[in-house]
Amino acid sequence: MAEVVIQEKHGGKSRQRRKRIGIDMTPMVDLGFLLITFFMFTTNFTKPNVMDLGLPAKDPDPHPVNQPVIGDKNQITFIIGKDNRIFYHQSNEKDLKESGLKETDYSGVKVAKIISEAYENAPKKEIFTIIVKPTEQSSYKNFVDMMDNISLAKKERYGISDIKPWEKRIYETKIK
Q1: Residue (of 3, 4, 38, 42) closest to 23 by Cα position
Q2: pTM of the shown model
Q3: Do 87 and 81 touch, CB atoms closer than 8 A?
Q4: Which of 41, 71, 79, 140 has a beta carbon 3.0–4.6 Å from 87's, enabling a disulfide?
Q5: Domains of the chain in sequence order
Q6: What residues form DSSP beta bridges with 6?
Q7: CA pair distance 104, 132, nearest whole angstrom
Q8: In a 3-state reduction of DSSP, which class is residue 41?
């Protein structure tokens, strides 16, 4: 609270006697802390960064009889390696050689262009699939960059899988 000026009468004249005004700041400090607390609880400091992964619905029949075989030319496999390196191939276990595992990088739209070229050369475009296989040495940033490149290529059929032992063997000889 604040103190007020008191008027006194001395011999017919009224004089104002001034007192020093003192303001009690305790209620104001309480109000300030209440407001700070209110805004801290009601404010979002940062928005979460979320990547939208299109996950399929659970299949009621886990072992379908007439499941189409994708084939080597209807898919492209990307292996995300260490040191920002990325390799790709369109081969199976028997045909994959060290020369068949090609390397590219994330600069520009190279990965999206490779996906588009593989899609154009696919015999059955309706079942064309992109397979992403991160290694143990790959970084999360490279995985996110790969997902961005898939969305740049405007392809919705993709899968994330572990690297197979035969691919790992070729990959390790390639990075040495």
Answers
A1: 3
A2: 0.64
A3: yes
A4: 79
A5: 6-42 (no CATH), 75-175 (3.30.420)
A6: 17
A7: 14
A8: helix
